[in-house]
Amino acid sequence: MSQALNLFDDMPELPKPERQTAAPAKSPAPSASVPEKSGEDYGASSIRVLEGLEPVRMRPGMYIGGTDEKALHHLFAEVIDNSMDEAVAGHANFIDVNLDAEGFLTVTDNGRGIPVENHPQVPGKSTLEVIMTKLHAGGKFDGKAYETSGGLHGVGVSVVNALSDFVEVEVARNKKLYRQRFSRGIPQGPVEELGDVHNRRGTRTRFHPDPQIFGSHAKFDPGRLFRMARSKAYLFGGVEIRWSCTPELVEGSDIPDKAVFHFPGGLKDYLAAQIGKEFTVTREIFAGKTRKQAAMARSNGR
Questions:
Q1: pLDDT in tens, 57-84
Q2: I need a surface site. Which of 42, 141, 192, 302 has the fewest CB within 10 A?
């Protein structure tokens, strides 16, 4: 390397460090203020086993991400996703969403209805109660009831039940109407048979978020629910979602108290709405779809 290109020539020589002899380590002075722990304060009784829906109420953030406004509205997403699964599977074609003045939210579909007969794995309890009170109980694990599904897969509606101070589920199934009520995840009685119904089927879930979990002033935002319902209709093209709420809740806002969302083109319709009259490179929006074998068989009558 030439003298002109040696970048380190002008750097002063660093002094060499003096060798130091390490001082012998000092033994820590004995402390009489910290007693030795015998381990007797940590035993089998220190381990708590949470039963049923207790863990959901103690740690809601593990299931819905917290107790803030976003988590509160996640309860709605879990309930409507169950109805959406029925629609996507071809068993329902409309979903009603209603918010009333007292803050109760109701989601109704015209699907098959939650089964109410006793569950074979839980003797003496109806399938409806099992689904509402036990985590990881649902029809989305083996692919027999649903080929595709959303939500928390067997956790969602039981979490909603655990975090609500009031839940009422009505099931219209096999031309009979059933009902069961819950509070903070606890059944307030067995499944009741209310009588015969001939022009109704499906599941109706009415619930109110627990102020002990979300705070005394927590309530659903109609605008947020409205947008969530509309987005679900875009994601599942062809499903009709009917929105309604008490008019006073949306007074002075641009949110209607009644609306119907129905987008046969699904995401294609969403993209068209977003683009509006803006210039596009292609004349038509490209969109494609695929169908599951079971859905094709149902449409062919098999």
A1: 999 999 999 999 999 999 999 999 999 9
A2: 302
Q: Which of 234, 243, 168 is closest to 203 using CA atoms?
A: 168
- Rounded to whole angstroms, the Cα distance separating 146 from 28 reads 66
Domains along the sequence of the chain with CATH: 54-220 (3.30.565.10)
pLDDT value at 1 more than 50: no
User: Which of 257, 204, 221 is CA-nearest to residue 103?
Assistant: 221
pTM score of the predicted model: 0.76
**In the numeric block, which tokens belong to residue 284?**
């038509």
The tokens of 235 are what? Answer: 């994601």
Encoded tokens for 229: 């319902």
* SS3 per residue for 16-48: CCCCCCCCCCCCCCCCCCCCCCCCCCCCHHHCC
> What are the backbone angles phi and psi of residue 98, rounded to the nearest 5°?
-135, 135
